[in-house]
Design goal:
single chain, alpha+beta, seven-stranded mixed sheet
Length: about 625
């Protein structure tokens, strides 16, 4: 299931309140201040989750003020936790002055790396660097970590901002990158196994459940298409061949030659397997084995969840990672919601002696003598480090943060191959539990009438019901429905505020009506909470150009051959996230973070490196990308 599922945030208006001369800020939901003594945890809220960390949480005693949204104080596992009904769900005071501005452009002032943005890719890169001994500063525009994998709270509901389908979160193999990232900083989270990755509801009344057990899934799929059993088995066997090759390797930077050559000598067959499939796409390989158009359309739907494009445009390596990991390690949902992952990583980051600064809106990257040396915030503050890592999209990085710089040739070539993928319309709802049958699956993909509508705006519907796995996310007797469908920002521009709100309700009503007709009779009457977000919402809160969720090939690509890695044409500047190899999805961006951390660590002297081999490999990789 695609971890590129829509990832928007919708929040009530808020304001920052300075508490006397105490030197820190809190976020207030505009409720009156009262006198109170309380203890604030400098770390993620521990309710609803078992979180084991190697170091204790820091606390700070605060007096004489009460923040409006702090409702109750409770004790959990001998730790005092401030619980809040705040829409943002932030249970900690955001320090204002605990991060000193860097003053030296040569990076000698303290930080080895500054990470712009706290999405999963950025946090994995930051924590991996921190455990290697680097001093890292993460700058987050908003007041909670996670970006597209964040959360928000409203009226007793805890909503995942984006996907509820978590790949890379198992206890085995080498592709369980989220588990590994948490373990690296001494954290482990409780998870709930999802018995069905997704339930497809497709044209011609085709219904397919992707069961956790691979044999059960294949048995169901081939029972629908017995005449294509051999072809179906051959296609998915190709996926397993790629997955097993990836899963056998120690995953680090493909731009670091010492590691790369070491892996090749240890696992030559596996490395050659991946090299063979690197320029290939899932659709072309499927067509080698399958002839039935409906089965090929089903493969398109499988890949659309991965990449929001059809199988012919989905790199085979990306498809294989997702289509096999859902069976190998399974989909496992974190207790307390997806936002707990980012909160745990930021806790681990702080435990390693590095820092995250919230409400830190980076507006430009500072270049000195052709090298990225620092960043400038919207409030005028500047921070400097040896290296800068951008977790923004490449369009935001090179079009906004570096808008005064000429676009490097490599980025021009990237934008010739890839365009911004569309955004999403998102609907978060709280509904009465009785409207859902008790055996309802957690995740659904709905395309009712015509396969041609698969990639059309509002054509396909993704639906997540995380409360089928973790009922604590909603009030008793209620369920969460998170509905999303592709939409472009152009469809929402040029409207007055009134017309914009009217259109949101009209489009959302049509989407909900489709689900009511197809899956849940009486759905509309059961709604108790509803909030609708558009691509403009995603752009505003996630700072993603046009609300996009990464790159999409302009035409049929040569697999992953044209996808850039972490280094850029600007010395000292690196990119991480979904517009880097290997692309979109939680498991992919976590992989990107691991690779980025390894390459940066080598460049700042924390890993072995060879400048001669580095230069040769980077030239080779640049040449290979030019072939795309």
């Amino acid at each position: 299931m695609n971890t590129r599922f829509q990832k928007s945030q919708y929040f009530l208006d808020f304001k920052a309140t300075q508490l006397g001369n105490s030197g820190f800020q809190v976020i207030s939901c505009m409720l009156p201040l009262k006198t109170l003594n309380y203890t604030v945890l400098h770390g993620p809220r521990l309710s609803k989750q078992s979180l084991c960390c190697s170091k204790p949480l820091k606390t700070q005693i605060c007096t004489n003020q009460e923040v409006g949204f702090f409702r109750t104080v409770e004790r959990s596992r001998n730790l005092l936790s401030v619980r809040t009904k705040s829409v943002m769900g932030v249970s900690e005071v955001v320090e204002k002055d605990d991060v000193a501005e860097g003053k030296n452009k040569d990076g000698s002032g303290g930080y080895d790396a500054i990470v712009i943005g706290s999405g999963i890719g950025g946090l994995v890169a930051a924590t991996q660097l921190a455990v290697k001994g680097a001093k890292v500063l993460v700058l987050e525009k908003y007041v909670i970590p996670g970006g597209s994998s964040g959360f928000y709270e409203r009226d007793g509901y805890t909503f995942d901002v984006g996907s509820s389908v978590m790949f890379g979160f198992s206890d085995k193999g080498n592709l369980n990158l989220i588990t590994q990232a948490l373990a690296a900083v001494g954290c482990k989270m409780e998870v709930i196994p999802d018995p069905t990755t997704v339930h497809f509801h497709l044209p011609n009344n085709l219904s397919v459940q992707v069961h956790r057990e691979y044999d059960d899934f294949i048995s169901e799929l081939t029972s629908k298409f017995p005449h294509e059993k051999e072809g179906i088995l051959k296609f998915y066997n190709e996926c397993w061949k790629i997955f097993n090759a990836l899963n056998s390797l120690e995953l680090k930077s493909l731009e670091e030659p010492i590691y790369l050559f070491g892996q090749f000598f240890k696992k030559p067959v596996e490395c050659l397997t991946l090299a063979y499939y690197l320029p290939q796409n899932a659709g072309s390989i499927a067509r080698n084995f399958i002839k039935d158009p409906e089965v090929l359309s089903f493969i398109d739907a499988e890949c659309f969840i991965v990449s929001t494009v059809n199988a012919l445009q989905t790199p085979m390596i990306n498809a294989s990672m997702v289509l096999c990991d859902r069976h190998f390690g399974g989909i496992n949902y974190p207790v307390g919601g997806v936002g707990e992952i980012a909160k745990s990583l930021t806790k681990g980051l702080a435990d390693q002696g590095s820092e995250i600064l919230y409400r830190a809106n980076v507006t430009s990257i500072i270049i000195d003598n052709g090298k990225a040396v620092g960043v400038r915030l919207s409030d005028g503050r500047e921070f400097f480090a040896k290296t800068i890592i951008s977790n923004a999209t490449r369009w935001d990085t090179f079009g906004k943060l570096l808008k005064k710089q000429d676009l490097p040739k490599e980025e021009e070539n990237f934008q010739k191959i890839y365009v911004k993928a569309p955004s999403f319309l998102s609907i978060h709802m709280g509904v009465k539990a009785e409207v859902l049958p008790p055996d309802t699956d957690c995740h659904h993909f709905v395309l009712e009438d015509d396969w041609k509508n698969l990639e059309e705006p509002y054509g396909s519907i993704f639906l997540s019901i995380p409360t089928m796995l973790d009922s604590s996310l909603a009030p008793k007797g209620r369920h969460i429905l998170h509905i999303f469908t592709t939409s472009s920002i152009e469809d929402w521009q040029g409207l007055s505020t009134k017309d914009y709100e009217i259109k949101k309700e009209l489009v959302a009503d049509k989407i909900i009506s489709r689900l009511e007709n197809k899956l849940f009779p009486g759905l509309k009457a059961s709604i108790e909470f509803k909030e609708v977000g558009t691509p403009k919402t995603h752009r505003r809160y996630l700072a993603r150009d046009s609300g996009t969720y990464g790159p999409m090939p302009r035409s049929v690509p040569k697999g992953l051959l044209g996808m850039p890695f972490n280094t850029t044409a600007i010395n000292g500047l690196y990119c991480v996230g979904d517009s880097c190899f290997p692309g979109q999805g939680v498991i992919a961006v976590a992989f990107s973070g691991v690779m980025c951390a390894h390459r940066v660590a080598a460049d700042v002297g924390l890993e072995k490196r060879s400048q001669v081999l580095d230069a040769g490999l980077l030239r080779l990789l640049g040449w290979l990308r030019s072939l795309a």
